[in-house]
Amino acid sequence: MKYLDPKNDLIFKKIFGQHPRILKSFLNSILPLPEGQEIVDLEYLTSEMIPETFLEKFTSVDVRCVDNLGRQFLVEMQMNWTTAFKQRVLFNASRAYVTQSDKGLSYNMLKPVYALNLINQNYLPNNPEHYHHYAVVHLKDTDEKLHGLEFVFIELEKFKAKNLKEKKLQVLWLRFLTEINEKTEQISDELLDHPEIMEAINYVHEASLSKEEKLLCEKNWDRISSEKTILTEAKAEGRAEGRAQRENLSLKRER
Question: Domain map of the chain by residue range?
Answer without folding.
Answer: 9-209, 210-255
